[in-house]
Design brief:
GO terms for molecular function: DNA-binding transcription factor activity; sequence-specific DNA binding. Keywords: DNA-binding, Transcription, Transcription regulation. There is one protein chain. The chain has helices at residues 97-103, 119-135, 143-160, 167-186, 193-200, 204-215, 219-237, 242-248, 254-265, 269-276; strands at residues 3-8, 19-27, 33-37, 42-49, 51-56, 59-64, 68-71, 77-81, 88-95, 114-115. It is an alpha+beta fold and 281 residues long. The chain folds into two domains: 3-160, Jelly Rolls (Sandwich); 167-281, Orthogonal Bundle (Arc Repressor Mutant, subunit A). The relative contact order is 0.11.
Length: 281
């Protein structure tokens, strides 16, 4: 079984048109699986650590830290934690007549359930989810605060994924999401940007322009950030040898990894570990 914290909300009485019905955090055990099954209400999940798998509309996605996924009411989905690095997820569930109308404006649905968004928007959505979960502990009535924070989440999603974009913008957003998903699924292997370009069947310069427009950095820098984030996590939380961590982060040459890590953080992997090591439980 997983360690699940479940939170209830009380604002349906005050606002039956747009309300939070529940939320929670799930520190999953290895290979813990939910589904295939449907859920009531709309659900937004955030992956804060680890790795897991999400299946929607008969398509399986591999998700890691920083990813969001969306569940539509009564759509059959499956969620499963990784065997070796089980994920931790946080979620909110909302519904109501206005929820249905708002979701019609956002290009995230059962067939397009995964979203990777720029750091600024991701932080806002992540923070609002955590704030809502924290507010659920308070005894006083928080219906206006609940609704306000939920609307802020929906507003950020509509900014990034509006349904009324011009065709060209829709196309570039879809290409960006597809490329980002490929990077998140494969950065732990020795892929290069050439592999991304080949997978996408795109010109390298065009891919760079898409990334710069959406998140402000190129695909190569983003790939490096993903690998360095994973490297820091492993250095802080494991006793693995540096060469093992290098391989786990997509580097076939440990020396190249050490050089990249020092360039990125200003410290060698060994010094970073000694300065930032967390106590293992």
């Amino acid at each position: 079984m997983s360690m699940v914290q479940f939170y209830g909300f009380n604002n349906k009485v005050y606002n039956p048109y747009l309300y939070l019905s529940s939320g929670g955090s799930d520190l999953a055990k290895p290979m813990h699986t939910y589904g295939p099954a449907g859920r009531t209400g709309y659900m937004i999940h955030y992956v804060s650590a680890g790795k897991g798998f999400f299946t929607s509309n008969n398509k399986k996605y591999t998700l890691t830290k920083g990813a969001f996924f969306f569940i539509e009411p009564q759509k059959i989905v499956t969620m499963s934690a990784d065997k070796y690095d089980p994920w931790t997820t946080h979620w909110i569930r909302f519904t109501g007549k206005l929820a249905i109308e708002y979701m019609k404006r956002i290009n995230i649905n059962h067939t397009n359930p995964i979203f990777f968004i720029s750091d600024h928007h991701a932080q806002i959505i992540r923070d609002k989810i955590f704030e809502l979960l924290e507010l659920s502990h308070m005894e006083r009535e928080n219906d206006l605060i609940y609704t306000s924070k939920l609307l802020q989440i929906l507003d950020q999603l509509q900014i990034m994924y509006p349904k009324n974009l011009q065709e060209e913008q829709n196309s570039s957003d879809k290409l960006f999401t597809k490329a980002l998903q490929y990077i998140h699924n494969n950065y732990e292997t020795p892929i290069t940007i050439n592999d991304v370009v080949e997978y996408m069947s795109l010109d390298r310069t065009y891919l760079y322009k898409i990334f710069k427009k959406v998140i402000g950095v190129g695909p190569k820098e983003y790939l490096t950030k993903c690998r360095m984030r994973k490297a820091r996590e492993l250095l802080e939380t494991t006793d693995d040898w540096i060469n093992i961590i290098a391989y786990s982060c997509g580097y076939s040459n440990p020396l190249h990894f050490s050089r990249a890590f020092k360039h990125f953080t200003g410290l060698s992997p060994s010094i970073y570990r000694s300065n930032n090591k967390r106590l293992l439980k």
